[in-house]
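Q: How would the structure tokens look for this protein?
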Amino acid sequence: MNGRHDEDPPEHGGGLSHDLPVLARRRMIRLMAGASLLPLVGCTPEGTSASPSSSASSAGCAEIPEETAGPFPGDGSNGVNVLKESGVVRSDITRSFGDSAGGTAEGVPLTITLTVVDATSGCGTPKRGAAVYVWHCDREGAYSLYSEGVTGENYLRGVQETDEKGRVTFTSIFPGCYPGRWPHVHFEVYGSLADATAATSITNTSQLAFPEDVCDAVYAADGYGDSVRNLSSLSLEDDGIFSDGHDRQLAAMTGGTADGYTAALTVPV
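A: Here is the predicted structure in token form.
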């Protein structure tokens, strides 16, 4: 397996062993805050009732769960900062850009569509003019800018401004599964495109998860051999990030391996 991942040693930010204590503290703070509130009624991205521990107002819905950015964000918080590079604002993130090595990430085509909505308005109001930065590993499980062999690449990273419906869309490839983590996509939400390209004022950091049946179908395709083995020892319920609940982070999937998949997720902020 190439590269280093969320579980890697301290030279790349501490990895999962560093991230999980931080997450635990964040989640404990949220739980303590929630304990002081009366049960609240809200909505999930699918419009179902939110859990009573939601920190949203009684007229709103639960925000997207806060998750670690991991050790490979590329946002300046752990070494390199791709957000300040010309060309990072783009919809097709399969290719590297700028002064990179110019490589292209190969794999089953994937379209990522995120819809950012206002949690305080009951998830009914789109957040127009916000910005989303997404990044994920390649078919081999390596992260551009960080992993061995692809430090000179910056593919599978990009920023988009939300449209009038609060949507951003990225053309990508389905990520591989590496040891210790369920297949996922990282993303950060910013208040504006200017904030994103200045790498400042992140409002939300979370991760999108993929359904198991889709992962199984994709990993039967050429080039994903290691992912089959890695996924076989994992489950969403045991994943260090998604084990405390993944319903609001599980993408709705359409498509197939021949023409590619679309992963859609509503992101209340």
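Confidence is low (pLDDT under 50) at residues 1-59.

The helical segments are 15-35, 193-197, 212-219, 225-232.

Upvote if useful.
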